[in-house]
Amino acid sequence: MNTASIALDTIGCKLNQAESDALARDLHKAGYHIVATEGKTDVYILNTCTVTHVADRKARHLLRLARRRNPGALIMAIGCYAKRAHEEIKNIEGVNLVIDDYQKQNLVDLITKSGYPPKNIVDPRSHFRTRAMLKIQQGCNKHCSYCIVPQTRGKELSVPAVKILGEVEKLIEDGFKEIVLTGTHMGSHDNLVDLVEQILNKTRIERLRLSSLQPTDIAPSLLQLWQDERLCRHIHLPLQSGSDSVLRRMERWYSASDYENAVNLTRKAIPEISITTDIIVGFPDESDAEFEQSYDFCTRMAFANLHVFTYSPRPNTSAALMKDLSAQTKKERSTRMLKLAKNLSQDFQNRFIGQTMLVLWESKTGDYTEGLTDNYIRVFTKNSKNLSNQLLPTKLVSSYKNGLWGELVDIN
Fold it and tell me: pTM of the predicted model, to two decimals?
């Protein structure tokens, strides 16, 4: 009898991806066969996000699509949208189970009891990618006026360092070359600097990456960690707006000047670092002048990339009571900011053409393989060999798709 197949889909942040990755590893080791989300499957699990109305809409679409593709499958929803709007998702035609946080810890048992028991034990290294997301913290004690995350993720809670170190060792044994530390507000971990030092000093991990930090997390003691070359030169540093008046309405806890100082301190300590950010356009009452301030600030900061979000009201947030802008205004501003994001990304990548850098090669399609530099530049190459999960010196030679074309350097 064949192993039951499970497709696991994820919407949203790196923390969601970390939780999905951990769940996929548990399911795989229990004997389930993890398959692509586009094909046929016995069980479909969607890890949802509710940070915007677009994320909600996408979740509803994917759940309905999964049912059309798999009429007889077990369809399950987990994650933040499932927690916030349990009954709403439960009423979507074709959804069998909406899982809360407690049940999520026992998902293997739930699937088994639903008539899909695991049948084989398989090599955990046979399916997964070369980078592993690892949750070190969850929850947020901040209450930004637009953000629903504190309602869905709860208060800040750190994963103990000893548990994280144990997880890192398991991931290394499973063959991962890079681990990405994630959290809702990762800088609030009990002692982030000490944790990173322990991982670097006590394990053989070849690459360690921090995901999202806040500008107020940036301090000399943190930046000193990058003296170890295994720590990837990339920080995602959410800005949300480059206008001080908008930042105040958002109830962010820093000014544009504070943010700029954090960026300057980081770039001085870590040359060639990639700094990416989040920007919200069309926040309530955002004037033309305030938008231009934000646009100009992003231009001056020369980010490696922008993640652009169009504001949408979230239930039970104070910003939802403010005057919303027209859909047309928000669309126009989003279009401009997305174009800036593309130009800034290309400018940053082009600075590295001609350099030779280590690339961690990942997915392969035919003879073409793509991977990442430590400073988060996507690189493509053509090679008949399977380069997956190898860190190889690569010369960056030209622009290609959303990254750079690379040529492997012969080190023999």
Answer: 0.90
